Amino acid sequence: MRNFFRRSAASVALLPLLSLAFPLGGCAQDAKITFRKVFEGSTPEFVEIKVGQNDGGTCDIRQLSEDPNALPFDVGPAVRAKIFELAAALHNFDGVHLDVRKRIANLGLKTFRYERDGEIHETSFNYTIDPNASQLLQIFEGLSREEWDLILIQRRMRYDPLGVNDALLQFEADLTQRILPEPERLLPTLDKLANDSRYLDISRERARALAQRIRTSQDH
After folding, report:
1. Contact 213, 178 (CB under 8 A)
2. Most distant pair of Cα atoms in the chain: their distance
3. pLDDT digits 0-9 by tens, 92-136
4. How many CA atoms lie less than 13 Å away from 56 in the CB half-sphere?
5. What is the distance between the alpha carbons of residues 55 and 146, in angstroms, rounded to a whole number?
6. Nearest to residue 179, comparing CAs of 152, 157, 154, 149?
7. 28 confidence band (pLDDT: 50, 70, 90)
8. Mean pLDDT of 1-28
9. pLDDT value at position 27?
10. Would the CA dihedral through 64, 68, 72, 76 be positive or negative?
11. Angle between helices 131-159 and 77-89 (to 10 degrees)
12. Residue 187 burial by Cβ neighbours in a 10 Å radius (0-12, 13-18, 19+)
């Protein structure tokens, strides 16, 4: 009987340690990084991208007058790993001040946010010269631009077939500037457009050429 009570007491003593290793409610939550940009008067005015450390995420890109519409959004493992690597270099935004102490024109309020198991850190800025923050911003700006190009092409395909070529030209310009982290995400839409006779030949040919350009770059 004494041995039983000793074992019971030892088990009770371990409970606090177990609760730290295995939080109530199940396994530890996946870390999440959120990028938000609010820039009134621009197009788009609102961007919010959330990326999970292992998988999953959402993207909400719109004008401020529009209703929130966060859609499923995922990025490849290389880009995901880079995002969390840069966030770690910035101490997951814990006590980090990125804004320059100079009067700079309004470039939109940007926010980085880190969340995991109730731990939350965030920092906001208009303009920064921190190299890690600048690189992280470049990735998120590229992802948002990539998604905006996709949204524009799909909207034109649905509501304005004659305007599809203009949307493709914008995407082509962004592709040429190498600001899009994962342009291959647009391949299904480009392929669909290239093979749909309802659209102008010039749009179909441009979509086909852009898809081939992306695939060729992947092979090198």
Report:
1. no
2. 87
3. 999 999 999 888 999 999 999 999 999 999 999 999 999 999 999
4. 6
5. 19
6. 149
7. low
8. 43
9. 57
10. positive
11. 140
12. middle
Residue 206 burial (10 A CB sphere; 0-12, 13-18, 19+)? buried
pLDDT value of position 56: 85
pTM: 0.84
CA distance 19 to 164: 56
- pLDDT bin (cut points 50, 70, 90) of residue 209 is very high
Q: Would you state the structure tokens that stand for residue 185, as one six-digit string?
A: 């995400």
Query: Tens digit of pLDDT for each residue in 33-91?
Result: 999 999 999 999 999 999 999 988 999 999 999 999 999 998 999 999 999 999 999 99
For residue 101, count CB atoms less than 10 angstroms from its CB and return exposed for 0-12, middle for 13-18, buried for 19 or more: exposed
For residue 79 the two structure tokens come to: 């880009």
Name residue, tokens 């493992």.
Answer: 77
DSSP the chain: -HHHHHHHHHHHHHHHHHHHHS-TTSSPPPPEEEEEEE-TTSSSSEEEEEEESSS-EEEEEE-TTSPP--EE----HHHHHHHHHHHHHTGGGTT---S-SS------EEEEEEEETTEEEEEEES----HHHHHHHHHHHHHHHHHHHHHHHHHHHHH-GGGHHHHHHHHHHHHHTT--S-GGGGHHHHHHHHT-TTS-HHHHHHHHHHHHHHHHHHT-
